[in-house]
Amino acid sequence: MDRKIRVGAVSYLNTKPLIYGFEKGMMKETVELVIDYPSNIATKLINDEIDIGLIPIAAIPVLKEYYIISDFCIACDGTVGSVCLFSDTPLNEVKTILLDYQSRTSVVLLKILLKEYWGISPVFIEAKEGYEDSIKGTTAGLVIGDRALQQRLRSKFIYDLGEAWKKMTGQPFVFAAWVSNKQLTPEFIAEFNNTNEFGLINIDNVVKENPYSAYDLHHYYTDNIKFKPVFNKLEVITLFLEKLNNYK
After folding, report:
1. Res 103: pLDDT
2. Contact 224, 79 (CB under 8 A)
């Protein structure tokens, strides 16, 4: 390719270890880094505005051509911490749920869990920016990313979607994966993996350079998030995508 590879990543704390190497200058001659939130990154990849994206896995079937290119991803094996349903009341008293506008995967995951695990049928409302202030009474809210870590300090009831999925299926969950919309060379992918791993090797520095008081980032990066899962992530993604067909 006669230009830099355009790589899109989300603007959340959970991606900081994966993009740390890029931000420190690794692959600067071959990669242009683009930062946005998940659904925007997915749209850019679909529209060929970027070549690689760390995209919500629910967006994968929309791509005409796709390749899961990296050993690294955003996954959990139980509690994830930053993808949760928040409420002031127990779940069986919830009447309405505000849906986070930033990631389709989390919305579909919630709908699957509500029907197949919790067995309730609340009313869904597509939320807009600032909706967290409306999480009160019998109105709950799905909140993801950094805002979820902050919402943990505000809400009485917290239902972690990674934990619920694990209890329902016995399986881990993959929220986002590095996906390309074109074939890339094995040499590029190997260097891409090395750059991803740089942040995990230097996790203490990542935490130090991203001071955050709402949640213990070292715990988040080493216990909640599985950046390089030991499980077969393709099997986990396939299970979710099979269920996805029933929730379009």
Report:
1. 77
2. yes
Say if residue 106's pLDDT is above 80: yes
Same domain (yes/no): 197, 130: no
Strand order in the sheet with 5-10: 31-36, 5-10, 52-56, 173-180, 67-76
pLDDT value at residue 114: 97
> Got the DSSP string for 92-152?
GG--EEEEPSS-HHHHHHHHHHIIIII---PEEEE--TTGGGG-BTTEEEEEETHHHHHHT
Query: pLDDT confidence of 248, banded at 50, 70, 90?
Result: low
Average confidence (pLDDT) over 69-78: 96
Q: Any bridge partners for residue 96, and if so which?
A: 123, 139
Domain coverage including residue 224: 5-76+172-247
Q: What is the DSSP string of 166-228?
A: HHHHS--EEEEEEEESS---HHHHHHHHHHHHHHHHTHHHHHHHS--SSS-HHHIIIII-BSS
Q: Quick one: average pLDDT of 137-153?
A: 96
Rounded CA separation 70/89 (Å): 40
HSE (side-chain half, CA atoms, 13 Å) at 6: 15
Last residue of a domain, one of 122, 141, 169: 169
How many residues belong to the chain? 248
Q: Which amino acid is at 206?
A: V
Q: Kindly report the average pLDDT of the chain as a whole number.
A: 95
Choose one of 108, 139, 169: the last residue of a domain: 169
Token pair in block for residue 172: 């881990």
